[in-house]
Each structure stands twice: as C-alpha cells, then as structure tokens.
Design brief:
Layout (H helix, E strand, L loop, with lengths): L14 E6 L12 E4 H4 L3 H7 L8 E5 H19 L3 H8 L7 H10 L1 H19 L4 E6 L1
Antiparallel strand pairs: 1-2, 1-4, 3-4
C-alpha cells in the first residue's frame, strides 16, 4: 500500500500536497500526491536539509536541484534506520526537533519500516516528476 494518497483518498486532516511543476491554480489538485502530516513529520529533516526555507504548512516551489538534495537526505534517514545508527539519526534530526528530539528518535525507531516504505514511494514519485518538471511545489494544507 502506498502512503502517497490521491485527491479522492484524502479526508479532513492535515496533509502536505506535492504538485508536479509550479502552482498556477488552487490547492488540492488531481495530479498531486498527498501525505498525512503524521507521516510527513518523518521527512521534515531531509526536506529542511535540502531546502532551508522550508516550513510546515506553507507553500514552496522547490527546484529540481534541491529535490535531488532532499532525496539524498531521505537516503541518509533510511541508512541510519536500516543500520540501527541511532546516534547518527539523532544528530541528523536534532536541529529540527530540538525540544522533543528523544521522543522523535523513538518514533523513528518504532516506525522504521513504515518510514522506509514512505521514502521509497516518495523517491520513485519525485524522480518520475523531475523527468518532465523543473519544480515540485510542496504545500502544507
């Protein structure tokens, strides 16, 4: 099961929308994919490392070069989880979860397989979109 949802699958919750290209119309687009905020939080450090202006629940038109850096960050998270390198993972996520870093580390460890699945799905989707788009817009709903 993919954790990347289509428009007809989302419910009344907080999501992050990933739109291929630049936003030229409103939010909630059929060509977008959506990730529940409870899952998206695990991706935040990689996105922030690859695109510093990122803030949750805002809109960013992120260029292809930054997405390549973000994908590298996703791979770092996966490697830390797969190799059980908790100190490396803690160091990577600490700047983004300063107040409750220990709690978030435990959540990463508890949800390692789920995070791995999300990242795999997302990397595949991003790479497919970057073939024909120079930007992917990230929107916090």
């Amino acid at each position: 099961m993919s954790h990347l949802l289509k428009l007809n699958q989302i419910k009344e919750r907080n999501y992050h929308e990933l739109l291929p290209g630049v936003l030229t119309k409103g939010y909630k687009n059929a060509e977008s994919v959506y990730i529940e905020d409870d899952l998206f939080v695990f991706l935040t450090p990689a996105i922030k490392h690859g695109y510093e202006p990122f803030e949750s629940f805002n809109r960013f038109e992120i260029p292809k070069g930054n997405w390549i850096q973000i994908i590298s960050g996703f791979v770092i998270i996966k490697d830390y989880l797969n190799n059980h390198e908790t100190s490396g993972l803690m160091e990577y996520i600490l700047p983004h979860f300063k107040i409750q870093a220990e709690n978030y580390l435990n959540e990463y460890l508890k949800n390692g397989r789920l995070i791995d699945e999300i990242i795999n799905d997302l990397i595949t989707w991003i790479e497919e979109q970057l073939i024909t788009n120079d930007y992917i817009t990230l929107i916090g709903l």
